[in-house]
Amino acid sequence: MMTLDNSERVLRPGHNCWRIERADRLALVIDAADYFRAVKAAMLEAEHSVYLIGWDFDARIKFEPENKTLDGPNKLGPFLRWIGKSRPHVQVYVLKWDLGTLHALGRGTTPLFLLDWVTSHSVHFKLDGAHPKAAAHHQKVIVVDDALAFCGGIDMTADRWDTREHIDDDPRRRRPSGRAYEPWHDASTMVDGAVARALGDLARERWRRASGNALDPPPPRSPIWPDGISPTFTGIEVAIARTQPEQDGEAAVHEIEAFYLDAIASAKDAIYCESQYFASRRIVEAMAARLREEDGPEIVVLNPESADGFLESVTMDTARARLLKLIHEADRFGRFRIFTPVTKQRRPIYVHAKILIIDDRILRVGSSNINNRSMGFDTECDLIIEGNGENTELRAIIAGIRNDLLAEHLGVEPLRVAEAIDAQASLAKAVDGLISNGRSLIPYVPDEANAAEEALAENDLFDPERPTSLMAKIRKGIGLRSSPWR
């Protein structure tokens, strides 16, 4: 088992993580093509229980859009109904954010499938409303028999399936309605051992909060590991970090925010992150402080060209533009880069992955974004691996993951990325030199915000830091009523 030098550890249970547990295997799963298939394969191995905990589920999505290779129906809803009828001894618990169901009203047969799940004796569906007003349950956790778990940023819903090639006009990239959608980059993890059991504890606690009913852990069983996914790490310690707002007298949990701040402060050479947003002032200010240092780390950020959805794009994109001004003022030594990935035809690839890599020492993958909600208002769950000291094997794997991700986005081989970093002695300059006119990264340049966008970005109604900040706004009568969109 890989060991860590405790004298240099960033991770501290009770402060910036919940628990540190051992995993026999952990795989980083990039993009939903592999993820959807692995989730179905794992559920086919279930003997006792399956927990599906998420922001959203769409019953009509296909596990394998092109060629079905696994047993059972190829769509999520019919598959769960099939599990309930063919394997009644397996109890399936589906927990979905309650406000997310508003989106389901326009999804054709989805509500009908939800009714089927509710009426099954072995498939249990619950809309999760155990959260402060306007908060969201944003965790994406799947646990099978406490033997295998998935945790990351991928939702089992529409518009998510894609391959690492992010092919222009890929005919497999279709919504259930048949309409095409644009390329989508995402990431999750698959893990077994004690980490999977800990995520089972988290899932059962989520179910208890939402339903009022306590679930018993499943009995021990033999290991599960779907074919086609090779472990990225073996015999490794993994931390679980959470965000959980104060609710019903239970204290708030801000482990993820504490981890981000500690990890950024610990960086020596380079910070690499992929995030849907760049809108948390506390996190961005921490990055700006490091950029002001003469010998501070380089920072490379990957973001989508624009946030997904009208209100998200108005508020998050404008907030990003304002915080980038703070970054550029601090970046006296030219060590900051922010990019958007594009396809061969130069169409933007939407970045939904939530990845943070510090030097070659720390890897974090989860559900949390770099925005205020993820730091204190919504529920989130991240997995973190840390290596220090002489742990050269682990550090080589983490550096390889970073180089592999950059190679995907730049349209080159990982070896070219590694060679460029070595030659330049700089992550940022290596990326600069590998940018091309085809599949590549392009520098993100924010548009100038208009008055309406500035007003929405200034108002934290859509991205509050804490439940108390939102309620204070509402009590003062500041919110949608003061918005220029009224």
Written overview of the protein:
The chain is of the alpha+beta class. It has two domains: 25-232, Endonuclease Chain A (Endonuclease, Chain A), CATH 3.30.870; 239-443, Endonuclease Chain A (Endonuclease, Chain A). Helices cover 32% and strands 21% of the residues. It has helices at 32-44, 76-86, 110-119, 194-211, 255-266, 281-292, 310-330, 372-376, 392-410, 414-424, 427-434, 451-458, 467-475, and strands at residues 19-30, 49-54, 91-97, 123-128, 141-144, 148-152, 184-185, 187-192, 233-244, 253-254, 270-274, 298-302, 336-342, 350-351, 355-358, 362-366, 380-386, 440-443. The strands form two sheets. It has a 16-stranded mixed sheet that branches. Strands 7-14 form a two-stranded parallel ribbon. Helix 5 packs parallel to helix 6. It starts with 18 loop residues before the first strand and ends in an 11-residue tail after the last helix. 51% of the residues are buried.
